[in-house]
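Supplementary Note 3. Input sequence used for the single-chain structure prediction.
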Amino acid sequence: MIAGIDEVGRGCLAGPVLAAAVILDNRQPIPGLQDSKQLTAQQRERLAVVIRCQALSWSIGRAEACEIDQLNILQASLLAMARAYHGLAIVPNWVRVDGNRFPPIDAQGEAIIGGDASIADISAASILAKVARDREMIVADTLFPDYGFASHKGYPTVQHREALIQRGVLPIHRRSFAPVRSIIGCSQ
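The predicted structure, written as discrete structure tokens, is reproduced below.
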């Protein structure tokens, strides 16, 4: 039993960082798995349904914007990964994590740079995390329609930075991130 773990949302100015942990069923390979960034939103949505149906176990973990501000983005990402791992219904005997850091979990495994593009279980985790976070940001767009979250998903686009300047900082913004911190400084 091998679990793949990946996170999404590290570079965003708003919203949580999400991680997914997935244990795939080797008897049911899922064609088309790759790094979520290489897929269209429609492809990710379709694959996410297949992954959730066919995986032996999967889980989503998160760290909120306030936790990111308290811990820093690296530690919050590792926390989200640990939470995803602990949410699995099956305890794997090996864990593969995308990146160069292993989360604080009591498990054997390895961190693999670029694993989301080359390791099926990490690719599956990448897809589940991306789909879940994108959906959350679409909900945020309905709550805060003037910020454009449905289009930029919280990333630091020109549209997002302009909304921050014109409308101010929201509770879901990461106040420790320089572009947000500069807006807070201007408004005080």
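Strands lie at 2-8, 17-23, 57-63, 94-98, 109-112. The first helix runs from residue 41 to 54.
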